[in-house]
Design goal:
Length: 171
C-alpha cells in the first residue's frame, strides 16, 4: 500500500503558474474579482496578463494566497469550534450578494468563498444545518425580525436555537 501522507512529486516549485493560481482560487470559491481583491490587484491584471500568460505571476502572489488560505482555514476552524459547542448549529448561506448583511465576510470575499467555508465546516461537523436566512428561520422557528437582529452582527457566523418543532420530536 502506498503512503498517501508523503507527496510523491517532491517540493512544490517556487514559480507560481497561472494554472496553480486559478485552480487554487477556484478551490477556495474565489471569482476573478474576489481573487483580485484578495491579492490587491486590478481584475484586468488577472484576466489580461496572468490568465493568458502575457506576464508572469509575481513571486509574492504565492505568499499572499497562502495567507488567504490560512485565513480561510481559520474561519472554518472558528465555525467548527462554535458548531461543536452547540446542540443544533446552523450556518446561513446566500444566493445573492444583495442578501448578505453589511459587514459580513461574504460581502467582502464573495458568496462562493462563503459557500466553501460553510461546505468545509459541514464536512467536519455533519450535523450543521445549512440554509438561506428564510430556511434557517423556518427550521429553527425564528421570526424574521429575530433572525435579522441576530444576524446583523457580522461576528455571528453560526447560529444556535432549538425550534419548537424539533423540541416536540425529542420529547
Amino acid at each position: 500500500m502506498t503512503d498517501t501522507t508523503t507527496p510523491t512529486t517532491g517540493a512544490e516549485p517556487e514559480e507560481v503558474t497561472a494554472g496553480w493560481l486559478f485552480m487554487t482560487a477556484n478551490a477556495l470559491g474565489l471569482s476573478d474579482a474576489d481573487l483580485a481583491y484578495v491579492l490587491d490587484v486590478r481584475p484586468d491584471t488577472l484576466r489580461k496578463h496572468w490568465k493568458f500568460g502575457t506576464q508572469p505571476v509575481p513571486d509574492g502572489v504565492r505568499a499572499d494566497l497562502q495567507q488567504f488560505i490560512e485565513f480561510t482555514d481559520a474561519c472554518v476552524d472558528v465555525l467548527v469550534s462554535r458548531a461543536e459547542d452547540m446542540d443544533e448549529p446552523a450556518i446561513i448561506v446566500y444566493g445573492n450578494l444583495r442578501d448578505v448583511p453589511e459587514g459580513h465576510m461574504a460581502a467582502t470575499y464573495g458568496i462562493t468563498w462563503w459557500d466553501h467555508v460553510a461546505f468545509s465546516t459541514k464536512k467536519l461537523v455533519p450535523e450543521v444545518y445549512i440554509g438561506y436566512v428564510a430556511e434557517v428561520a423556518m427550521a429553527y422557528d425564528y421570526s424574521a425580525g429575530v433572525i435579522d437582529a441576530v444576524h446583523e452582527d457580522p461576528s455571528v457566523l453560526a447560529l444556535h436555537a432549538r425550534s419548537t418543532e424539533r423540541q416536540r420530536t425529542r420529547s
